[in-house]
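A brief tutorial aside. Many learners find it easier to grasp structure tokens once they have seen a single protein encoded end to end. The record that follows does exactly this for SsrA-binding protein. Read the sequence first, then the structure, and try to relate runs of similar tokens to stretches of the chain.
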Amino acid sequence: MAKNSGGRKLVAQNRKAFYDYAIEERFEAGLILEGSEVKSLREGRATITEAHAGEMSGDLWLFNAYIPEYGGANQFNHEVRRPRKLLMRRREISRLLGQVQRKGMTLVPLSVYFTPRGWAKVELGLAKGKQTHDKRAAIKDRDWKREKERVMREGHKGE
């Protein structure tokens, strides 16, 4: 588990989301968990790469997030890919769901972390899917920046 800025303890990160989607806005949501899920998250073994957020019966839920079973929980363990309810203000939820339905956007979890108070939170991104040519352009830009940094570094060593 890595420390993030602001005293956050980062549990899981969805780095693939930045490649597949153009993130337009970010939101923080609380996460309702069972006891064994919290213990498993504290061990830092969660995966949110295939996860997404969506609406179920008027509330916001996190679907397909993988939180493995906790070894010490025995028979009281949780289901590993169950839907988990997200906590946000009602006005924020309705605004997000409206944008998802109208504009064809997606809610993608970007990271799961613990606050300094010990609460589990999810950072959601309101995202639009990238086309293949956009992904290629992003790779090209990233490689160009990396090459430029390398040249600059080597240029300073020669002086």
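Self-check: Residues 2-130 form a domain with the Small Protein B; Chain: A; fold (CATH 2.40.280.10). If you spotted this yourself, you are ready for the next section.
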